């Protein structure tokens, strides 16, 4: 079975509007945002499916013991429920599946990328009252429990295994070749988590040029976030041209050139030439 297909244009536009509104809320809901990412990527996910996924997170939270203790007790309780009892974990093969980045499919399959499994851990734990947050280690997302002085890390990709300090250092060294820095252990902002999820989707699509539809919706949602890399708008314009939307792509390239011109005239001129070439392809 192939990767899921995006919804029809009207539904896609509605999902983008809802995503943008949630991203700009005073307290963005991480589960809602990740489920809307799923709705942008999977046309089979309707509003009833969105509600069902939230209900499943509530159900799982209800299976946790009542306030089991400190940070380590919380981490072990989540590992016992989600990792051992329910079988949530990941494998190398999950990196090849788009579904591994879509929360509703992760809840169905109980498999996913580290960051999506961490979202499941966080959302279940949060509903149960745990002091939980995401920790965006370079190359491998994990979950943290408790304040900095008592912090306990767990790896949902490995079934919720509680990590020692040496384990975290090994993960960072494997990803960067460098040491674990204290700043790497800070709680991740929910919107940064969502952007990282969308970056994973874009990476999946980049390896599959025939799925430029996936790259398109991932970039469009990224642009709907209040803060995003400026170069994303350039990538979006290039993708529009690649997909044959020459006028729209040219207009976006010209708009990006105006921004770039404030810091680099020569780069802006190169982008303007690209816009001209895009318009010429209509002839």
UniProtKB/TrEMBL annotation:
Pfam families on file: TPR_9, Transglut_core2
Positions of the Protein SirB1 N-terminal domain: 72-199
Family: Belongs to the UPF0162 family.
Protein name in the entry: Transglutaminase-like domain-containing protein
Protein's organism: Streptomyces neyagawaensis
């Amino acid at each position: 079975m192939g990767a899921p297909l995006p919804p029809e244009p009207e539904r896609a536009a509605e999902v983008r509007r809802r995503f943008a509104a949630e991203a700009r809320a005073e307290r963005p809901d991480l589960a809602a945002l990740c489920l809307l990412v799923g709705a942008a990527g999977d046309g089979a996910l309707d509003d009833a499916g969105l509600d069902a996924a939230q209900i499943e997170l509530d159900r799982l939270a209800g299976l946790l013991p009542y306030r089991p203790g400190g940070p380590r007790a919380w981490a072990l309780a989540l590992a016992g429920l989600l990792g051992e009892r329910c079988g949530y974990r990941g494998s190398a093969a999950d990196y090849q599946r788009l579904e591994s980045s879509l929360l509703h499919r992760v809840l169905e399959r109980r498999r996913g990328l580290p960051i999506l499994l961490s979202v499941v851990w966080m959302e279940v734990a949060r509903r149960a009252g745990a002091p939980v947050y995401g920790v965006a280690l370079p190359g491998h997302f994990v979950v943290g429990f408790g304040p900095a002085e008592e912090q306990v890390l767990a790896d949902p990709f490995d079934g919720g295994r509680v990590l020692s300090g040496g384990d975290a250092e090994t993960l960072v060294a494997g990803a960067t070749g460098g040491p674990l820095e204290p700043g790497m252990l800070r709680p991740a902002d929910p919107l940064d988590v969502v952007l990282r999820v969308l970056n994973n989707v874009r990476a999946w699509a980049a390896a599959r040029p025939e799925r430029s539809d996936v790259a398109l919706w991932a970039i469009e949602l990224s642009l709907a976030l209040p803060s995003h890399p400026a170069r994303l708008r350039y990538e979006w314009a290039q993708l529009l041209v690649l997909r044959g939307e020459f006028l729209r792509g040219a207009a976006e390239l010209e708009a990006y050139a105006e921004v770039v011109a404030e810091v680099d005239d020569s780069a802006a001129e190169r982008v303007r030439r690209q816009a001209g070439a895009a318009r010429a392809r209509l002839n």
